[in-house]
Amino acid sequence: MKVLLANPRGFCAGVNMAIECLEACVREFGPDIYVYHEIVHNRHVVDRFASQGVKFIDRIEEVPSGAILLYSAHGVSPAIRELARSRDLRSIDATCPLVTKVHIEAIKYAKAGYNIILIGHEGHDEVIGTMGEAPESITLVESPEDVDRLTFTPEQKLAYLTQTTLSVEEAGQVIRRLKERFPGIESPPKEDICYATTNRQHAVRQLIEKVDLLLVLGSQNSSNSRRLMEIGLAMGKRAYLIDGQHELQADWFDGINSVLVTAGASAPEVVVQECLDYLSEQFGATVEEVTTREEHVTFPLPKELRQMMKAGQI
């Protein structure tokens, strides 16, 4: 069996920053720390921190007054920030800067009187946070069909934004339909879909024709990971999204001579290596890493954490 290992894969700069932030807090404060939602959408990462005592919560009311609270990489709404302040929580914002960029764009367009059309998946943490910036101004769409149901007129001031972890191709279809219906619609100066999402999708599209099967390391609630699996399925290949080697089934590989392995932007490299070890041990697989694009993006730790460090609080 031949395995093509996609590069880039796995952790993006925003995920790296969020995880490093939580690791620093645990190291210095101890494990009595709260995180609003999952720090990133990956079961392996969340379980690792939970085993150390970190508490992942879905309601700010669950956090004791004065405790340390981290906001996840997906961002939160102003209402959540205000609730945290009212409870005197020591908040540290681990939101990915690329998500923050979308929040800032939403605020800017709303203040300028635009109706904002947000392309994204209902219920996703990132979408909830972005819509919370200007709920009276934002309408969510997921598909070209949703665009067809919009009741805005071409004369109204319209702008669109996108969730950062969407399929580039599917988002493009929605954007094209928006521009057909509303030729004057405004777009952000720079696209919102993040570089890491784009690069991982590009790698799968470039390499998928060379293999019989696609394995994507990532959790089921990871939007960007699901998009990678969907690309494989859309291109007629068998494709699976798994959290780790323990989910692999031997019969998946019956008649399979070549496999493409990649990982979503919140999946750690350790789970990739465990899968490669399994394929090597069970099927004598040889691995060839193929680099399709280079990545050199990094983000600093959150300002609040750096200030605490400088003040000697940690």
UniProtKB/TrEMBL annotation:
The keyword Metal-binding applies. (2E)-4-hydroxy-3-methylbut-2-enyl diphosphate binds at H41, H74, H124, T164, S222, S223, N224, S266. GO terms for biological process: dimethylallyl diphosphate biosynthetic process; isopentenyl diphosphate biosynthetic process, methylerythritol 4-phosphate pathway; terpenoid biosynthetic process. Isopentenyl diphosphate binds at H41, H74, H124, S222, S223, N224, S266. It holds the Pfam family LYTB. GO terms for molecular function: 4 iron, 4 sulfur cluster binding; 4-hydroxy-3-methylbut-2-enyl diphosphate reductase activity; metal ion binding. It comes from the Bacteria. Keywords: 4Fe-4S, Iron, Iron-sulfur, Isoprene biosynthesis, Metal-binding, Oxidoreductase. It catalyses: dimethylallyl diphosphate + 2 oxidized [2Fe-2S]-[ferredoxin] + H2O = (2E)-4-hydroxy-3-methylbut-2-enyl diphosphate + 2 reduced [2Fe-2S]-[ferredoxin] + 2 H(+); isopentenyl diphosphate + 2 oxidized [2Fe-2S]-[ferredoxin] + H2O = (2E)-4-hydroxy-3-methylbut-2-enyl diphosphate + 2 reduced [2Fe-2S]-[ferredoxin] + 2 H(+). Its cofactor is [4Fe-4S] cluster. Its EC number is 1.17.7.4. Coiled coil: none annotated. The active site is at E126 (proton donor). The keyword tRNA processing does not apply. Dimethylallyl diphosphate binds at H41, H74, H124, S222, S223, N224, S266. Catalyzes the conversion of 1-hydroxy-2-methyl-2-(E)-butenyl 4-diphosphate (HMBPP) into a mixture of isopentenyl diphosphate (IPP) and dimethylallyl diphosphate (DMAPP). Acts in the terminal step of the DOXP/MEP pathway for isoprenoid precursor biosynthesis. Belongs to the IspH family. PANTHER family: 4-HYDROXY-3-METHYLBUT-2-ENYL DIPHOSPHATE REDUCTASE. This is 4-hydroxy-3-methylbut-2-enyl diphosphate reductase.
